[in-house]
Structures are given as C-alpha cells and as structure tokens.
Automatic annotation (TrEMBL):
Residues 249-408 form the Oxidoreductase molybdopterin-binding domain. The keyword Cell membrane does not apply. Gene3D superfamilies: 2.60.40.650, Oxidoreductase, molybdopterin-binding domain. Residues 436-528 form the Moybdenum cofactor oxidoreductase dimerisation domain. GO terms for molecular function: heme binding; molybdenum ion binding; molybdopterin cofactor binding; sulfite oxidase activity. This is Molybdopterin oxidoreductase. InterPro entries: Ig_E-set, MoCF_OxRdtse_dimer, OxRdtase_Mopterin-bd_dom, OxRdtase_Mopterin-bd_sf. The keyword Transmembrane helix applies. The chain crosses the membrane at residues 78-99, 106-123, 129-151, 172-191. GO terms for biological process: sulfur compound metabolic process. Keywords: Membrane, Transmembrane, Transmembrane helix. It comes from Streptomyces griseoflavus Tu4000. Pfam families: Mo-co_dimer, Oxidored_molyb.
C-alpha cells in the first residue's frame, strides 16, 4: 500500500461515522417524506409526527400538561413537535452509525419506529382503523430501504475498474445519497400539496358561509360596559386575540359541505343527523358569553369574551325528545364528540335550565375560525370549556355520568365544573414602575351565569375598597372594573377580589387548577417611583 492509499484510508475511517450518521438522517427524512403522500391519501391526521404527538398528549399527566401550558402557553404544541422531531433525528443518526456494522439490524430499527408510529396511529381516539397505520408503515419501509442501500455503498468494494482506494464506493454513495434526498424532497412536497387540497376545500366552504341575521340578536352592550383605560382587557375579545386551548396538534380543517352532526342516545326518541345548512336554516340567537379554561391560573390569560351566534341547544335537544333529569329524562350527561376524537361531557340539566347554551356557528360576526371550532362548537355560560365547549363537534350523545367518563375526566379532572368567581388586575402589570400620584388600577372579573356584583381592591394590608364597576353586559359576561389609586412611593402589593351575583365573595384560599379550577385572589406587585 502506498503512503497515499494509507492516507486516504485513514481519512475515510475518520469520516465513516459522519457518513453513517448522514445515511441515518437521509433514511429518517425519506421515512417522514414518504409518509406524507400516504397520509394525504389515507388521512392527513394519520401522519407519523401527528399521531405520536397526539399519543404523547393523551398520556401526559394533568400536572405535566399544566406545567407545559404554564411554561409554553399556546406554543406547547410547537415545543412538542420540535421535541418529537429531535428524538427522531437523534435516533436516525444513531441508527445510521449502527448501520456501518449492522446493516440489517439498523434497517430493522427503522421498521421498529414505523411499527410504533403505526400502533400510535391505530390507537388514536379519532382513528379510522388499521389503515391509519399505513403512513408510518410505508414511510418506515422507505426509510429502512434507504438506510440499507446507503450503508451498503459505504462498505461496497470499489466497482470493477474503479480506482477507489480504501474499499468504499465514494461515487456510488454520493449518487445514492443525492438520489435519496431528491426523491424524498419531491415525495414530501407532493404529499404536502395533496394535503393542501383538503385544506383548500375546507377554507372555501368557510369562505362561502353567510351567517343569516339572528332571530334574537344580542342585547346591545351598554356604553358604560367598555371602559377606556389603557391596558384593560377589551369587553369583546377579537377573534385573533382569543385564547386557544385544545389537544389538536394540527387544527382540524373541516369541510362544512360534507360535515354532519348526529344527535342520539338514551332518551332520544327522534335521533337526527343535521348538515351545516340545516343549522343555518334554524332560528339563530346571538349572545355575548365569556369562556374560561379550567387550566387558567389565578390572574392567567385563558379567558375571553365573544359574541357567539348559534342554535339554542335546549330547543334542539327537546325536538329530539330529550327531557332533563328533573323532568324524568334518563340521561344526565351530554357527551359531545369532535372530529379529532375529543369527548366533552356536560350536565343535561344545565343545558336545558333556560341559560343560553349554544351550538355556536359564529364568533364576533364571522363563521367560527378554524382554531375555534369551525363548523360548529358548543358554548355554555357558566361551565369551564373542558366540560362544555367542544370544538369541531360532530356527534352529540345522551348518556349518564355513571356510564361514561369523557376525555378530561379520565385524566383526573372533575366530572362537573361550574366556573369559579375570578377577578384579574390587567393594569398596572406586575413589576410596573408607575409614577407617584394617581394610578389607574383596572381589570376584569367573571362568574358566568351568576354575574359580578362587586369588586374590591386592597393596597398592601390596607382595608378593602370598592372598585368602580363598569356596566354589566350580562350575567354571562365578564365585567370591567377600575380603581383610582393615589400611589405613594415605594413597593406596593395590589390585590383584587370580586363578589358574584349570589353575594358570595371570591375566596382567598389558593387552589391548584386540577381538578376543578383555580381559586384565590390575584395580586400584583409594583414599584412606585
Ligand atoms: N375538540 C376539542 N374541543 C375543545 C378542546 C379540545 O381539546 N378539543 N378543549 C376545550 C377546552 S379545555 C377549552 S378551555 C375550550 C377552549 O376554546 P377556545 O380554544 O376556542 O378558546 O375548548 C374546549 N373544546
Ligand atoms: Mo380548558
């Protein structure tokens, strides 16, 4: 062996692990890319990263979910997706290096990942069955093939007549790697394009919607309900600013023209299946209703107030023959099911007790945004979202609380969860440094369906002082308040508490969000300069 050949061999030995890792990365890329068109054909929601992410979300303990929401807010899903991709990437690199010595085992390793993805897909609550395993399975086969092939190039002896010192087929590897990368990129792009067609149909169906004027418009919001104070939450939360909490890694994009809602179950003497147009043809009502998440910490952001347009649920249920338990009906729970397999159970009694429980189609004058449940969702004044506000709804089943536990109930949250009285200081912000003198303290308070009758503010350990209440929208909306504070220099703690429409004062005792919502007073510390 000449010195030159020795050098080349040494160099090759040094870069071999890198080439192995590269092969693994290309195999992983090929697997995910090939899964895309298969998912477009089978079901976009069955794509490997989505099903594995969904499985992770379903298995996350309530405490960890709470932590993730606290740390990452609505970005928690981005973080999860990035985490899954990172794990897959590291595994792919490791399998690639392994393939240098154990080509078959490494390729089998890729197949194992496919099996895990396929199993996760079939186990999803919205799974369409065994076909959901196809994107992961076919992708894994492609990935395994790419890895087997590339690893082969890495140790293949020089081609006949080729002048490749060091015993590997450099040109062959380069060609194969480039071809694999190009084919994967093309296949992935094709898959994405095919999936885009579904999204476009859904978007077009939403664009075509014209919400008819409601038979019962929302009562006018009194002028005095909207305080003009910088930093206060506006009385009506614009759709783009409305909080979003759900388990959907990819927002379901439902085509309203093919969508149906089924109502059935115990005590339903006349089951029905309704189309979107059927709902639009019904008598619509419009109401301002504040929606709150049970995961909202004291002072947290997961609350918003919107003008909802929809069909009154009580009427719809009554037409199907449903009677509330107090009038002898056999079902005490209504389980709403969404297209993504979420289940949300609400007390039938509450839905039919005269409150404006809605099957909502519109939000602030627009068809529901996809993020907020298009084509239809529920909104029930006085109940936390997880026991009332099912988005992307497709099925309503009458049953009993004894017979069925909905999604969150199986994860340690309470069966029934009326909204707790809460108040929040929107301004000043924590750690603000206002100037001494008059400082406007303001915020919102909510106790849906009971209403807010009083708000008090306390400075440090001083006496509770009445805040000025804005006019009330309704018992189902939050209420703005303000307090003109004569601020003196130094560090101060501002605390707020509300009194609901039953005369009950918001309790001081802090509780966690699990199992039925946080309680306690909101405080903000500021330094007056
Ligand atoms: N399909 C579906 N509906 C859902 C959820 C979900 O995860 N999936 N989350 C519920 C919860 S916990 C809340 S608080 C509200 C939030 O509604 P928003 O995202 O429109 O604010 O939706 C409810 N409806
Ligand atoms: Mo929630």
């Amino acid at each position: 062996m000449t010195d030159d050949e020795k050098k080349t061999r040494k160099a090759h030995r040094a870069i071999r692990p890198a080439l192995g890792a590269l092969s693994g990365a290309l195999a992983g890329f090929a697997a995910l890319a090939v899964a895309e068109p298969v998912a477009a054909w089978v079901r976009p929601q069955a794509a490997p990263v989505l099903v594995v992410g969904g499985a992770a979300i379903d298995r996350t303990p309530a405490a960890v979910k709470d932590w993730a929401i606290r740390e990452f807010g609505t970005d928690d899903k981005l973080v999860l997706r990035a985490g899954i991709l990172a794990v897959l990437a590291l595994s792919a690199l490791a399998l690639g290096i392994l393939a240098l010595r154990f080509r078959r085992s490494a390729a089998s390793g890729v197949l194992l990942f496919g099996a895990i993805g396929g199993a996760a897909a079939v186990a999803r609550p919205d799974s369409a069955g065994i076909t959901d395993a196809l994107p992961s399975a076919v992708g894994a086969v492609a990935g395994a093939a790419v890895l087997f092939l590339l690893a082969g190039r890495l140790r293949a002896p020089a081609a006949e007549g080729g002048s490749v010192p060091g015993g590997w087929d450099r040109r062959g590897f380069l060609l194969a790697a480039t071809a694999a990368a190009a084919a994967s990129a093309g296949t992935g792009a094709l898959g994405r394009a095919l999936q885009g067609a579904g999204s476009r149909n859904a978007a077009a169906s939403r664009d075509r919607v014209v919400l008819p004027p409601p038979a019962s418009p929302a009562p006018a919001v009194p002028a005095g309900a909207r305080l003009r104070i910088p930093g206060i939450s506006p009385f009506t939360t614009p759709n783009g600013d409305f909080y979003r909490v759900d388990t959907a890694l990819a927002v379901p994009e439902v085509d309203a023209t093919t969508w149906r809602l089924r109502i059935h179950g115990e005590g339903v003497t006349r089951p029905v299946t309704l189309s979107y147009d059927d709902l639009l043809r019904r008598e619509l009502i419009e109401r301002d209703i504040t929606l709150t998440c049970v995961s909202n910490e004291v002072g947290g952001p997961y609350v918003g107030n919107a003008r909802w347009t929809g069909v009154r649920l009580a009427g719809l249920l009554a037409e199907c023959g449903v009677r509330p338990p107090s009038r002898g009906g056999p079902a005490d729970q209504l389980v709403a099911r969404s297209v993504d397999g979420m289940t949300i159970g609400s007390p039938v009694e509450d839905l039919m007790d005269g409150r404006d429980a809605l099957l909502a189609l519109g939000m602030n004058g627009r068809p529901l945004p996809f993020d907020h449940g298009f084509p239809a969702r529920m909104v029930v004044p006085g109940l936390y979202g997880y026991v009332s506000a099912c988005k992307w709804i497709e099925d309503l089943e009458l049953t009993t609380f004894d017979a069925y536990d909905a999604y969150w109930v199986r994860r340690d949250w309470a069966r029934e969860a009326p909204v707790k009285t809460q108040s929040r200081i929107d301004t000043p912000k924590p750690f603000a440094r206002p100037k001494a003198g008059p400082v406007m303290v303001a915020g919102v308070a909510w106790a849906q369906h009971r209403g807010i009758d009083g708000v008090e503010v306390r400075v440090d350990d001083g006496p509770w002082q009445e805040a000025r209440l804005a006019a009330e929208g309704s018992r189902d909306t939050w209420r703005q308040w303000s307090f003109a504070w004569q601020a003196s220099k130094g560090s101060h703690t501002l605390t707020v508490r509300a009194t609901d429409g039953t005369g009950e004062v918001q309790p001081e005792r802090r509780t966690r969000t699990v199992p039925d919502g946080a309680s306690g007073w909101h405080s903000v510390v500021v330094t007056v300069e």
